[in-house]
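User: I need a structural model of Phage shock protein A (PspA) family protein from Desmospora activa DSM 45169 for a docking pre-check later this week. Nothing fancy, just the predicted structure tokens so I can convert them on my end. Input:
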Amino acid sequence: MFRFFNRVRTLVSAELNSALDKAEDPVKMLDQYMIDMGKDIAEVEAAVANQIANEKMLEKKLNDAQTLVEKREQQAIHALEAGEEDLARRLLEDKQNHQQQVDTLQASYEEAQSLSEELRGKLQEMKDEYQQMKLKKDALQARAVSAKTRTKVNRTLSDVNHGSARDGFNKMEEKVLQYEAEAETSEDMRSANRSLDDEVKSLTSSNKVDDELAALKARLNKE
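Assistant: Understood. Predicted structure tokens for Phage shock protein A (PspA) family protein:
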């Protein structure tokens, strides 16, 4: 019944390396180990209770047998006092039979006492170990959660620094620069076109003035 505890102790002392190698969840595994350990303790508690009951039963039989031995001795004394020697003999023979039973029960009772004490000690040892494992389980689970969180954060930061998010920002920056360059080019083109239009318009205006001047000169000459 103690092999399970040795196996769990080995896993915990290795700090879940085996679990991590197999891609198992340490948090769930430790909870399951504690459940299994609790079941083992319950089984040992039941065994200890049965042993204590057996011890008490033997104790009662031993006390009854001892009482009967004392009773037969007193009866033999009364029989002799009454002059019933044959009856006294038979009472003493029965006393001896019960004394043999007392001796046998005494040995069984002492053995049961020793076994009960041993089982109680082992049960207490299991309970103490369970409490120690529980404390360590809570600490290991907290460490496992922290490690997972750190891993997730580091991976996220790695993606930001070297992954698609940063590349995307760089591309968008290039796009914005390209838009700004196109805007400046369009402004230059618009300015250039506007200058040409102004020159053409100016030229047209000058031609009208020249025509009007020539017409005025021609009229004066006629006069």
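Before docking, keep this in mind: The helical segments are 3-13, 17-21, 26-81, 85-162, 164-222.
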